[in-house]
Amino acid sequence: MTRRIQIRFCILLAILLAVPLPNAAALDQAALLRQFIASRRAQRADGPAETTDPWADPASSFGHLPTDCKNPKGSKEADRITALPGQPPRVNFEQYAGYVTVDEEHGRALFYYFVESPYDAASKPLVLWLNGGPGCSSLGIGAMTELGPFRVNPDGKTLSRNRHAWNNAANVIFLESPAGVGFSYSNTSSDYVRVGDERTAVDSYIFLLHWLERFPEYKGRDFYIAGESYAGHYIPELAAVIVAARKRTGKDPTNLKGIFIGNPLLDDLNNDKGSLEFLWNHGVMSDEMWNNISEHCSFGPSDGSSSSCDEAMTAFYFNFAKIVGNIYWYNIYAPICIQAPNGTVYSSSYLPGYDPCINYYVTNYFNSLDVKEAIHARINTRWSNCSIQVHGNWKKAPLTMVPTLSSLVDTGLRVWLYSGDMDDACPITATRYSVHDLNLTITKPWRPLPHVGGYIQQHEGGFTFASVRGAGHMVPSFQPKRSLVLFYSFPKGVLPPAVSLWQP
């Protein structure tokens, strides 16, 4: 078997491992990220990546961007949500949603959902939340299954309150990006096939300029960018664009203070190694398989031309494919959603506070005409959690975000990473390799979080890495209280209180 055929076979199996449930509503970040990582592995095997890298010198690449909005359109009042259909009584905070045009010529517009804090919103910071994929919705995933103020109930029509919503601590924007994801759109069809990291970062930056004109009371407010998964690319890149504009003009309309990223995809090679090592550490891979992979794979650029590494990886994936249907890649100990022949869905087992079928409920909710009208979305849009079209056409993504993170730390931005320790998509093992690559001196050593909800460590420059015990890829879904405790500490730049390992 030739090297190319071996690699294609390995990648085909990797994609099969993440086949979504038959209903398109089940397509989620896990399925798309699995396919994306596999396709990137194939690209590395085919030859060297392109040499141009806009993130090597962001000031030159993005310093020309504007720092204000010349012709703002839309209004805050037009975007105000009177009430979401099915929301519980006594909602005590303001909600807004609508479109912001980021490219007039192409007619490219991004959709957002914004929730203010119910507690002294005027004093709370502003946070932009981004989900990954690439190609998945921050509205459907972040807002309605993780950290937003509501969760969609199984009837797909009503909402319940999330007691551990992050708008308890901040005013939060959920942005569907890029165009083609969720309700975001373009009037130029080629925009859906010319997608990638660079344009996504620039569009998000232009969105912020326009949004701040619509909500001028947030100009000068402390601003943070948070998210997870492929937002391990989105967030450092958007921050780099903001810093580049600041460096070139001396202006920063967003007043960016820091970034907060969960279970991030930071480095392709570290993620390959970290994922396999995680599965071995958790008993999903035999010692013999792991030893064979370790012996023949360096997890460096040279693996692309190594037939022995191809064979070792293929041998594992071939065996793993036999059992993966019963394992959720985003939390290897969580139940999975099962679809019955009659179309009904149910959880394979019980995990308190977590429903693996919630993506179905969310899809039904946002395709309701009443909901689309209430949030000022285009009613002719068939909403889905993730866009296969956007995902399948993704281009121009750097292999590693470590240099960008390092430069952001050097600028004085607060950079915190956190990892749910049950995730194999972007596992804690992979993130730790990338943290090691930053080569930052430890200032506050590894110690448990309150009630041993995880562990935390701080490095020079304030860079912080934390684990969240018992959480998968979407930490606020699996451990909402623990994630909120960590998020409360982040804007303050103060670690959660230390606890003793010995508690009588």
Automatic annotation (TrEMBL):
Biased composition (Basic and acidic residues): 70-80
One of the Pfam families matching this protein, by short name: Peptidase_S10
Region (Disordered): 44-84
Endpoints of the signal sequence: 1-26
GO biological process annotation, one example: proteolysis
One MF annotation (Gene Ontology) recorded for this entry: serine-type carboxypeptidase activity
Alphabetical list of SUPFAM superfamilies matching this protein: alpha/beta-Hydrolases (SSF53474)
Keyword field: Carboxypeptidase, Disulfide bond, Glycoprotein, Hydrolase, Protease, Signal
InterPro entries xref list: AB_hydrolase_fold (IPR029058), Peptidase_S10 (IPR001563), Ser_caboxypep_his_AS (IPR033124), Ser_caboxypep_ser_AS (IPR018202)
Superkingdom: Eukaryota
Enzyme Commission identifier(s): 3.4.16.-
Annotated GO CC locations: vacuole
Record family assignment: Belongs to the peptidase S10 family.
Name of this protein: Carboxypeptidase
Record organism: Panicum virgatum
